[in-house]
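Why do we bother with a discrete structure alphabet at all? Because it lets us treat a fold like text: something you can write down, compare, and reason about line by line. To make this less abstract, here is a complete entry for DUF86 domain-containing protein. Read it the way you would read a sentence in a foreign language you are learning: slowly, and without expecting to understand everything at once.
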Amino acid sequence: MGQATRHFPDLEDSIGPVRQIVGFRNRIIHEYAEIDSEIVWAIVQNEVPRLLEESEALLKEYQCRPD
């Protein structure tokens, strides 16, 4: 599923729909001519803020772990 899950196998448990996130990214990159901009904007408004919060919490947790 990508570099992130190879390095952090429990990422899917922490963030949630990693497969959908990766799939969405792949569609934007490879099928950009067929993308519905209203759907993309709805995802940006409704999902990205939650993903950002979860990602920031994970980074803080990771930084607090001893090496």
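What the structure line is telling us, in plain words: The chain has five helices and no strands. The mean pLDDT is 83.
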